Amino acid sequence: MTITPEKEITLTAPDRAACAEKLTGLLAGGEAKNSAVFKLALVDFKNFNDIFGRHYGDLLLDQVSAYLAGFEGAEVLRSGGVEFVLILHGSGYARAGEVGEEICDRFNETWRIGDMDFVCAMSLGIVLPPLAAEKGEMLLEMLDSAEHEAYLSGQNTAVTYTEELRESLLRTKAIATRLKNALAVPDDPDLEVCYRPTVLYDAHRYTRAESYVRLFSDAYGLVGEATLIPIAEQSGLACALNLYAIRHTCALIRKLLEEGRSFETIAVPISAVQFLQPDFDRELAGLLEEYDIPAEKLALEITESTLINSFVQVNYMMQQVAEMGVELVLSDFGTGYSGINNVLDLPVSVLKLDRLFVLQLENDERCGSVIEGLISIAHKLGMKMIAEGVETDHQRELLASWGCDYQQGFYYSATVHADELVGMLSMPHPEDQVEEL
Questions:
Q1: CB of 249 closer than 8 Å to CB of 266
Q2: Residue 262 CB: number of other CB atoms within 10 A?
Q3: EAL domain location, by residue (predicted)?
Q4: Contact 246, 268 (CB under 8 A)
Q5: Is the Cβ–Cβ distance between 146 and 128 less than 8 Å?
Q6: What local confidence, expressed as pLDDT, does residue 430 receive?
Q7: CA–CA distance from 395 to each of 331, 355, 390, 401 (Å)?
Q8: How far apart are CA 76 and CA 187, in angstroms?
Q9: In whole numbers, what is the pLDDT of the chain averaged over residues?
């Protein structure tokens, strides 16, 4: 089906409440036993509008809606601006699976509008019959969960809702609620800011560290940063968690300075969403002033992969922060997300080698050539290099032979509390640590 730019737009307005009401009726009417429901969300549609204009964007939405309505037994609703809900009446497992595959295949092809072809990506969540939900909003949440997993799995991917996914959703909600409550308390003991020490190899002593946030939950035990940060981002708590960690780190830096400890910087890993906040530089300046610490003693660390969708905006705020004197660290370097050209445009002074490279040193000699090359690139760019995830003497020796400036990992130290870090950064005779490290 082709739609020309002159065609009048007939797309209905998005209405999640009306969609939920419709699904509630579906569940109450007994059709849930032989109906499948899909949620299709277009990916990066804002970029499409920015490039081609809203007129073509609306025509594309209209065409997607018409395509979905073309399936036998289909009823199409809009739960959001670029989100469609497809009810497939009279569908069993097999038919639902076929439709899911067909939709994914269709989005791997181009969409023709007028005399132009366009590429549009999506993610697809599926709830198979019988629809085991009590209310329409519950069914929408199930679809949201499946569609989000599809989004994380890659473009034009479908994920079917399962009980395992349900348990994961409940766990995420519980942790998000616990995190929100912990952030509302100034010093909740269940929300810890710990630190990972970093060794300056040639000096054989700890000169840097980075913060590590973890949360204790009665239901799920200790929740580490790798789990906590994505949940914070999904639940809108990322900025609050970032500022919580920055505040605690500023307090630690103040203590280190008052006790005359010798160190370079203490870093805080930051979600990219923080750099999208227009007042972040002012908030950061306020914290530096409140704790009376030099900007150069604080470092902010951002993951290379988070730059994909908002490079320009994030880079602008990074420039503002760098002008204040705060050190910027780019982690996961070498994974290839942003490329060397983008790295050159960023105001970073430290690169952090992705831990997967270090891990592969144990069983893949070719990885050594890659690491050596990345370290050489960093030095030629005038940047420092940190290798994280060092766990063996073999890894330590190889990295040192290639001139890696800093090393971090369980070979040297596990994650420590702030008071422990104070002692590690203040050993008076660094040369005495050679054998110990």
A1: yes
A2: 13
A3: 172-429
A4: yes
A5: no
A6: 40
A7: 19, 11, 6, 10
A8: 49
A9: 88
pLDDT band (50, 70, 90) for residue 3: very low
Co-location of 288 and 336 in the same domain: yes
Token duo for residue 402: 């290639």
pTM of the predicted protein model: 0.78
Q: Distance from CA of residue 436 to its chain's centroid?
A: 36
Q: Specify the higher pLDDT residue, 261 or 307.
A: 261
Torsion 93-95-99-101 (CA) sign: positive
Whether residue 246 is predicted with pLDDT greater than 70 in this model: the reply is: yes
Residue 267 CB neighbour total at 10 angstroms: 26
Two tokens at 332?
């996961």
Candidates 34, 76, 422, 19; CA nearest to 249 is 422
Q: Is residue 54 part of a domain?
A: yes
Domain check: are 137 and 198 in the same one?
A: no
Q: Which residue from 346, 247, 244 is spatially nearest to 303, judged by alpha carbons?
A: 346
Burial class (CB in 10 A: 0-12, 13-18, 19+), 355: middle
Nearest to 392 by CA among 358, 424, 433: 358
374 within 8 A of 353, measured Cβ to Cβ = yes
236 with 150, same domain: the answer is no
Contact 286, 276 (CB under 8 A): no
On whether the CB atoms of residues 243 and 237 are closer than 8 A, the answer is: no
Both 110 and 224 in a single domain? no
Could you tell me if residue 217 is inside a domain? yes
Pairwise pLDDT comparison (51 vs 423), residue with the higher score: 423
- Whether the ω angle into residue 130 lies within 30 degrees of 0, i.e. cis, is yes
Domain that holds residue 70: 16-161
Alpha helices in 201-326 (DSSP H): 225-234, 238-258, 272-275, 280-291, 311-323
Question: Long-range contacts of range 62-69, CB-CB < 8 Å, 24 or more positions apart?
Answer: 62/3, 62/7, 62/9, 62/10, 62/11, 63/1, 63/2, 63/3, 63/111, 63/113, 64/40, 64/111, 64/120, 65/11, 66/1, 66/3, 67/1, 67/106, 68/40, 68/103
DSSP 8-state symbol, 264? S
Q: Which two tokens stand for residue 304?
A: 């290379």
Q: Is the pLDDT of residue 184 over 90?
A: yes
**What total of structural domains would you count in the chain?**
2
Model confidence band, residue 332 (pLDDT cutoffs 50, 70, 90): confident
Whether the predicted pLDDT of 342 surpasses 70: no
3-state secondary structure of 102: helix
Residue 222 phi/psi, 5° resolution? -80, 120
